Amino acid sequence: MSVVPAEVVPGGARTVPETAPGAAELGPPARLWPSLAAVYRAQLSRARVARIPLLFVATFQSVGITVMMRGVVDTAGEAQSVVAGSSVLVVAYVALNLLAQYFGQLRASGGLDHYATLPVPPAAVVLGAAAAYASFTVPGTLMTAVFGCVLFGLPLANLWILLAVIPLAGAALSGLGAACGLLASRAELATLLGQLGMSAALLLGVLPADRMPVIVRLARDLLPSTYGVEAYARTFGAHPDWAVVLGDLGVCAGVGLVSLAVATWAYRRAAVR
Questions:
Q1: CA-wise closest residue to 30 among 111, 107, 115
Q2: How many other β-carbons are positioned within 10 Å of the β-carbon of residue 213?
Q3: By CB distance 3.0 to 4.6 Å, which of 15, 86, 140, 198 could disulfide with 90?
Q4: 69, 104 Cβ separation under 8 angstroms
Q5: What is the pLDDT of residue 147?
Q6: pLDDT category of residue 44 using cuts at 50, 70 and 90
Q7: What's the CA gap between 211 and 193, in Å, rounded?
Q8: Can you tell me the distance from the alpha carbon of 49 to that of 129, in angstroms, rounded to the nearest whole number?
Q9: What is the end-to-end Cα distance of the chain in Å, rounded?
Q10: How far apart are CA 206 and CA 61, in angstroms?
């Protein structure tokens, strides 16, 4: 019995030569700003459930501090420090305390694995979460500032400066809060670090600097929210030195870039472990 190749049989099946498939082309990498907007909207809708308690706690705490300090301060300069510090404290409560707790719990529960599978840059995750949490501080900060100005008899003309203080001080504090939550080995430690950071913002930002010892003033200068407090407090004068105000805001912006970069590095480090 002989075997005849199919190629020589009339009408036989012809062998189709196989060609190696080419490598599939990868899609373009996700861009930062569209990814940031997507993460921001997702985080904003997620935190919307806790918006009312968050606003109440942060605002009630700061308003209570201004009322308590009303019977302690006796000069215009001290009143300016109290009102400015209490207003920025709302930002510190959310950016340092709550964001540290959020990222600490996210790391402890394995939630970072979900974000690691998304085609978004690590910076978009950190910035999106920080921006979403900072958005909830705007009403409370404005309410505290208006209440404090009325209580202490301070002018409301330059209240618009908070539109620059809130995002810049919020960026600096959010980066620190996110880094604390991502670098902490346990969620409880992240909560502790967030509470300590908020306490530092309370003691060093609200209390008048003139009544602090020299060593405490040096620690105050290391806290990034201090420069947001100083920028807002300087606008209460009859003729504010806007160059100094812009300098304080520039310090907040610089610290914000560094702290958010550290938080992005901490996110990459925690996501691959």
A1: 115
A2: 8
A3: 140
A4: no
A5: 96
A6: confident
A7: 26
A8: 15
A9: 65
A10: 12
